[in-house]
Fold:
Amino acid sequence: MLGLNSKDKTLFLIVLALTMFAPFLLNPFPEGSELAQFNAGYPDLMQRFVIFGIFAIGFNILFGLTGYLSFGHAAFLGVGSYAGVWMLKLLTMNVVPAIIVSVIFAGLFSAVVGYISLRRSGIYFSILTLAFAQMSFALAYSVLTPITNGETGLQLALNDPRILDFDAADGSLPATNFFGIEMRDGFELALGPWLFTFNFGYYLCAVVMLIAFYISIRIFRSPFGLMLRALKTNQQRMRFTGKNPKPHTLAAFIISGMYAGLAGGLMVAMDPLAGAERMQWTASGEVVLMTILGGAGTLIGPVLGAGVIKYFENIFSKINDNVLYNWFSFLPDGMQDAFVFMIHPFIGKGWHLTLGIMFMLVVIFLPGGVVEGGQRLKRLFRRRGGSDSAGGASSAKVHPAE
Amino acid sequence: MGILEVKGVNKRFGGLKALDEVNLNVEAGAVHAIIGPNGAGKSTFLNCLVGRLEPDTGTVDFDGSSLLNLEPHEINQLGVSRVFQTPEIFGDLDLLENVMIPTLARRDGPIKLDAWSRVDHLVEVRERAEEQLQDVGLFEKRDMTASSLSRGDKRRLELAMCLVQDPKLLLLDEPTAGMSRADTNNTIDLLKKIGERGITKIVIEHDMHVVFSLANKISVMAQGTVIAEGKPEDIKGDPRVQEAYLGGAHL
Ligand SMILES: Nc1ncnc2c1ncn2[C@@H]1O[C@H](COP(=O)(O)OP(=O)(O)OP(=O)(O)O)[C@@H](O)[C@H]1O
Ligand SMILES: [Mg+2]
Structure:
């Protein structure tokens, strides 16, 4: 089925199940309970999970397979976003053309940036991509204001042409839709104290991510993927073996740029607004963190990394001192204060600190990221179970399988 | 007419004249050994053949066409494969993948980007690679990561990667360095066996046992020039060779 081997098929089906049931899985705590603030099953965040998942999957095709570390991929996401909003303004509120055009523009832009940046490798390549991204960021604020609308950001307006839409003209901005299904719509399901939200926008993003994930598996398992891994380990040997590494790296760069554009397009399909801050270097850095945290060069790692980081960003940042006082209210006053004082730097605005520490721990102790952690746990359990045959003997190397 | 004709090649590194008017003519099907003391310019000479270095002056013609100004992958696609002095392999990949890559390179050419078929469905390519691993005695280790091999095995792997391409010209830069006596003899047997396939070979070797059991022509290099050339018997007795190469000791 699908042209995947059995291991990949299992992985794909797991991801399929996780994304389809995400509204349940991410809302495990009953409404109104103390823990409800850890629920992540609201549309906005779920969309972000899968959109950044796509961004990271694409980034991993470049970084994970070829080892070329781009520090400018947010630029492609930004270009995709702007192109997408323009389609929504000019053509139609149907998101399909917007998403397609996002991918195309990001692809074209990454072809230019890749062609130039790939003349160098290592740190010089990284610096070149960073320079391009920062240049785009600066241009979006200055010369290109007619296209980007500068600091305000590019947004919809009532008098946009939208030549394909017949406006109801009721004086409000129309909503983005997928052939009539509005992205912000959905339905809610209350089961006792639990409340689950099923949002159409999320499901569109989820389906797109599944397709993106599937394509990435196919690339990993293809001769092209093999050549990318080959040039990562020894470009000299690849040349003397009769393969030209350049078109391979450029193709990987463009593909990952298109993934970034796809993510940008989906962002504006969910929320039709594009700002230059999306192209800033911090945004480029974030996708690097996601990929490494999850496990560069693995299939599922980037998705996990994106999930972890977005969860922290949105959930940990919401915990404030009041919440903490609540948690520790069972302690005597003095200890309560002490605990809150100790934890305070790690929550709320301090979530970056928590994330930073976590990132360092992962890089030092689990260079293969969350995926390697999972593999180690699996081996540990197998050993406990007594059937040590495969687990113990196999090397500690992270297989690109999972 | 030789399959490889090199005329008047010079190469300088700053003040050092690494190659000085080198001429070399290799007959098709021959096993042509290049011997000479350390730093004689032997590896530099091979670098000029495969496109790692560009000669300052001179011509390099292979099979009727010039190799000058060609990219390494283009030269390889013309049928020139090389085993390096320090093994160049795909360290992070397993042995089977290491041999499948050159097989694919030969089958698909330098830039075919095939992102849709599946490597594990390429039965022909895999079987060809497995056969080749069998030939060099590494089949049992096919799932191992290449970087974990011993130095001798790495060389054999690299040899397999070259042989699987069925090159017209095989360049071997010290193919038995770092091997045990037994492994060296295996490699000699292997090279003799592929000799029957008619692959032309240039072998750089310090081990005279290897040289005299394989070569049917020998060039001696010293300080960037070819100082003697001929059949193994002639070279053995040539006093200039003994002087330059062995400091007067008898071969
Ligand atoms: N890329 C380079 N840059 C500068 N000098 C070089 C370079 N490559 C080789 N040389 C110098 O050129 C000379 C010839 O080196 P080469 O490696 O060709 O010798 P060789 O005959 O292969 O020796 P060996 O038997 O030790 O392998 C040496 O003096 C070496 O230091
Ligand atoms: Mg040498």
Residues 62 and 252 of chain A are 5 Å apart (CA to CA).
